[in-house]
Amino acid sequence: MDRFDPLIASGIAAAIPLVYAALGELIAERAGVLNLGVEGMMLVGALAAFATVAVGGGVTIALGAAMLAGIAAAAAFAVLTLTLQANQVAAGLALTILGTGVSAFLGRGYVGFRAPASFEDLPIPWLSALPVIGPLFSLNALGYAAIAMLALTAWFLFHTRTGLALRAVGESPAVAHALGLRVTRIRYAATLFGGAMAGVAGCYYAVAQFKMWQEGLTAGNGWIALALVVFAAWRPWRTALGALLFGGVTGFGLYLQAAGVQVSPFVLGSLPYLATIAALVAVSASPQLLRRHAPAALGKPFFEGD
Amino acid sequence: MIRLARRPAPSRVMLWGSPLVAVALTFALGAAAFAAMGQPPLGALHALFVSPLSDLNGVAELLLKASPLCLIALGLAVGFRSNVWNIGAEGQMYIGAVFATGLAIHFQERWGVWMLPAMIVAGIAGGLAWAAIVAALRAHLHASEILVSLMLTYVAALIVKYLVFGPWQDPAANNFPFTVSFEDNALFTLLANYLGALEGTRLNTSVLLTLAAIPLAWVFMKYSFAGFQLRVAGDAPAAARYAGHSEKRAIWIALLIGGAAAGLAGVTEVAGPIGQLNDRWTPGYGFTAIIVAALGRLHPAGIAVASLLMALLYIGGETAQVALQLPRAIAYVFQGLLLMLLLACEVLVNFRLQWTASIRSSQAA
Question: A149: which residues sit within 8 A by CB, 6+ positions away?
Fold first, then answer.
């Protein structure tokens, strides 16, 4: 059994940031906002976190900085799409291009350094020694918080009035507006939450997993998180399941390498992307199913002034 | 107070005016950023975007960079018209380059003058093949073309890396990741060979392909039935369905044209200024072309102008590296900023800005 522990551990490590990013995007999409800028928001979050620890800040401050950076990026997107009625797909792409560029530009001085502070694993005595599920009990603080975040998001979405209002806005903004809900305000809040969560994911990469900064550190995981939301049919707990599957694919590659199997690193590197495509195809093959789960007003602008 | 009021019909003036406003704002913000960094703003802008064009070679380099951008954007614009978001042109370009390179390094000593034409066909086929995966998954299995095309871009980049670090690596390269250099028959001819005035520039005949593609794209969108179907599919999907236009067909056409253009652009690069395949031959042409298509309003003439502007940003980025010791990523900052501002200014096409004395008076009205 021990042989598989590293596989499970690396799978979970790869899954945690995906859970954060996907949960944030899930909330935004449930409110009808399709933000394709997750990758860009994650990158600015990652850089903000790394820069914070690089100048001597602690990991908690780094987490705050990453969330703020993610929120700032999401705010730019929100102004474009929710106030200025720009196309959400184009604005999301713009955010990713800008976030990639800004983080590469501002982060040039941090390349090649190791993070002086990082989130360390906090194993729970006894539980972490269990076979198979042991790795679940030796996460770092962000890892445990991710589980709490999953529960919190599911509870918020399906068991609170605000969650109901948010879903109403994503299903039918016109009806929600007629009922007196502040559609634009709710969508702003959901989008900014998505930015904060993407920031946390970025922070995880920079000061928990890789403990360094480089251009494009997040390697397309923002896009994988977007696919996860579809894969999870816009349900919080299922994002965890999907993230673990994706993490497992990544972990499997590392495991093979560690076991001395001769596989090209380029083949292993492509596994998460191919798995994403396979997962997308699997859940999209039935359009009726997809249409029933997807928020009806996803990606459609709503102008309150009409 | 400023509030937005929807125009009864989109403003034609603003349709073309808003990109100009966005470009002006981008450069203004750029100047402000330089000032904040302690650089003289106008001097820095001049150094980045004007002085590189002061000689023939600078202009030639501009055209050389604009050419692949223009080609890809022309292809992408067809798809964007019909609301098919192929954002994986970068990957389709990689595979086009891979197909062409595969032929070149294996047959360049044997195929003589047929080498380059064969590479062009192979490159287009490569782009088509990579885009066809997206089209098949989107049209028949309903998978998001946005995510699939992007995932395939990462895969394509890894394929290139695998090849140039592995089987296709130049044995004399000391483990550096590149293939052997192409022979003359696997390269586009330099225009200087025909036109003495261009002596010393790297401009080659592939630029002529782009020049030919611009009117071709225009005719296709404006006069062909397929182009009409694509436009209807994008502007009024319900009408397209009612008229019996096949949605699947539109998706296939949109993606295949984008893929073909991207694949061709890949050939023009590896068989042009690069002259080999390596792991970092593109500065992201496939992604920048998305901005070019949007900035050019999906119109071939607009795209041609926009590709020159984005090429200028690339050149500015390279100059910044040399002259101001700024990282090249500054080009991407400008690009992202420009696209953001373009989208922001687009509000002026469909909305008017209304000045109102206060919220209360506007509600009373």
Answer: A19, A20, A23, A197
Pairs of residues, one from chain A and one from chain B, whose beta carbons lie less than 8 Å apart? 142
How would you classify the pairing of strands B351-355 and B2-6? antiparallel
Which of B6, B155, B344 comes nearest A273 by C-beta?
B155
∠ CA A253-A258-A259, nearest 5°, is: 95
* DSSP secondary structure of B153-200: HHHHHHHHHHHHHTTTS-TTSTT-SB-PPPPGGGSPPBGGGT-GGGTT
**Residues B289/B76, Cβ–Cβ less than 8 Å:** yes
Two structure tokens written together for A58: 């602690």
* Residue B355: its H or E element: strand B351-355
A234-271 pLDDT, tens per residue? 999 999 999 998 888 887 877 777 777 788 888 888 99
- Which candidate, A56, A23, A9, A44, places its Cα nearest to that of A213? A44
Distance CA B200, CA B206 (A): 17
A12 torsion bin: left (phi>0), alpha (psi -120 to 50), beta (else):
alpha
Put simply, the answer to whether B335 touches A290 (Cβ < 8 Å) is: no
Please tell me the distance from the alpha carbon of residue A154 to that of residue B269, in angstroms, as a whole number: 50
DSSP A207: I
Which tokens belong to A30? 């449930």
B294 and A90 within 8 Å at the Cβ level: the answer is yes
Q: Which residue on chain A is closest to B151 by alpha carbon?
A: A273
Task: Test B158 with A290 for CB contact under 8 angstroms.
Answer: no
- For residue B144, the chain A residues in CB contact (below 8 A) are 227, 230, 280, 284
Contact A80 B330 (CB under 8 A): no
| Cα–Cα distance measured from residue B136 to residue B248, given in angstroms and rounded to the nearest whole number | 9
Q: How far is CA B264 from the centre of its chain?
A: 12
Q: How confident is the model at residue A2 (pLDDT cuts 50, 70, 90)?
A: low
pLDDT single digits (tens) B294-316: 999 899 999 999 999 999 999 98
Across-strand partners of B83? none
Q: Which residue of A has its CA nearest to B330?
A: A105
Q: How would you class A179 by CB atoms within 10 Å of its CB: exposed for 0-12, middle for 13-18, buried for 19 or more?
A: exposed
Cβ distance B162 to A263 under 8 Å? no
8 Å CB contact of B5 and A305: yes
| Closest residue by Cα to residue B93 from B275, B277, B296, B230 | B277
Residues of A in contact with B33 (CB under 8 A): none
DSSP letters along B297-321, please? TT-HHHHHHHHHHHHHHHHHHHHHH
Is ipTM over 0.85? yes
Query: Is the Cβ pair A230, B144 closer than 8 Å?
Result: yes
A85 in reach of chain B (CB within 8 A): yes
- Does the beta-carbon distance from B166 to A264 stay under 8 Å? yes
A275 contacts chain B (CB < 8 A): no
